[in-house]
Specification:
Blueprint: E1 4-7, H1 13-24, E2 28-33, E3 48-52, H2 58-72, E4 77-80, H3 95-105, H4 107-123, E5 126-131, H5 144-165, E6 169-176, H6 184-192, H7 198-212, H8 221-233, E7 240-243, H9 245-256, H10 259-270
Parallel strand pairs: 1-2, 1-4, 2-3, 4-5, 5-6, 6-7
Helix pairs in contact: 1-8, 2-4, 3-5
The structure holds NADP nicotinamide-adenine-dinucleotide phosphate (NAP).
Length: 275
């Protein structure tokens, strides 16, 4: 019998690619979006349901779970992919912008897990995959709030993985690198408006130019979809599934060298020499 996956944030980018891969591999797919648009994804109608879900609204999470169970009988894998980005200078980032990022990236995942865990316990099995970022391995300047929102999910997921093992529920992390092909940067634009003030402007310009000139290839949507599929189906106890050449380079630097070498190399890559 086909297994069922529910994915959040499938209207574009990584979430859309993940949904397409699971459809291709023969799974039942519940593709959720804040504002469902049926023409974004295609697949056999009997195996693909497009349902409304806003991770900041627990009522929509509960409705999506009920609809998925009614359609397919169980939710074997839940992928928390929905997320938003932000680059800003910390000293002028207002509380409202910080809370907006955390409401989606962090509390959105807490909301979803709170709702899906009882269902998975009832089933006696399940896999929860939380999408964080390569930023949790190597952090560049001007993304402190975004990094904080994703680091929180890393600690949460590691703890939760031990807590849920007893019920046959696995928790996994997918850590994608940067992909300029998704809507991530464009979606963050309005939120970041005016949050790089004049005193930071030339630093930011030089730092972003360095990021654009990355020493490896960027991540691709296909690599993230593969990592999410591996995370969903792995039979072992592995927690982290990094995706993309950029993430793997950062992981190598972070975990295979000393803290001093890691910090020096990160400065060379991301901090302009004149600052
Ligand atoms: N692209 C990158 O460079 C990068 C790097 C590392 C990690 N990531 C992470 O990868 C994940 C996917 O990002 P992406 O690059 O694919 O960006 P994207 O193309 O902007 O996709 C993000 C998705 O999240 C959805 N979303 C936003 N707020 C939501 C909410 N409150 N409830 C439900 N869905 C919501 C968006 O839906 P709407 O269409 O409704 O806005 C969209 O479908 C995010 O968690 C992001 O932090 C991205």
């Amino acid at each position: 019998m086909a297994k069922t996956v529910l994915i959040t944030g499938t209207s574009s980018g990584y979430g859309k690619a993940i949904a397409e891969l699971f459809v291709k591999r023969g799974w039942n797919v519940v593709a959720t979006m804040r504002a469902p648009k049926p023409d974004i994804l295609s697949g056999p109608l009997e195996r693909l349901k497009i349902i409304a879900l806003d991770v900041t609204r627990p009522d929509t999470i509960r409705q999506a779970i009920a609809a998925a169970i009614e359609a397919f009988g169980s939710i074997d894998v839940w992928i928390n992919n929905a997320g938003i980005g932000m680059a800003s200078a910390v000293e002028i980032t207002p509380d409202s912008a910080i809370r907006e990022v955390f409401e989606t990236n962090t509390f959105g995942i807490f909301n979803a897990c709170r709702e899906i865990i009882p269902q998975m316990r009832k089933q006696g099995h399940g896999v929860i995959v939380n999408v964080t970022s390569s930023v949790t391995i190597g952090v560049m300047p001007l993304v402190a709030i975004y990094a904080a929102s994703k680091f929180a999910v890393e600690g949460y997921s590691e703890s939760l993985s031990y807590e849920l093992e007893q019920f046959g529920i696995k928790v996994r992390l997918v850590e994608p690198g940067y992909a300029p092909t998704t809507n991530f940067t464009a979606n963050g634009g309005p939120r970041m408006q005016g949050l790089i003030p004049q005193d930071y402007a030339s630093f930011a310009q030089a730092a972003f130019a360095r990021m654009a000139n990355y020493p490896t290839a960027f991540c691709t949507e296909a690599e993230v979809a593969d990592a999410a599929f591996a995370a969903a189906t792995d039979t072992g106890r592995r927690l982290r599934f990094p995706a993309g050449a950029d993430t793997k380079m950062l992981a190598q630097l972070r975990w295979s060298t000393s803290e001093d070498i890691y910090l020096d190399r990160m400065r060379e890559m991301f901090v302009p020499e004149t600052f």
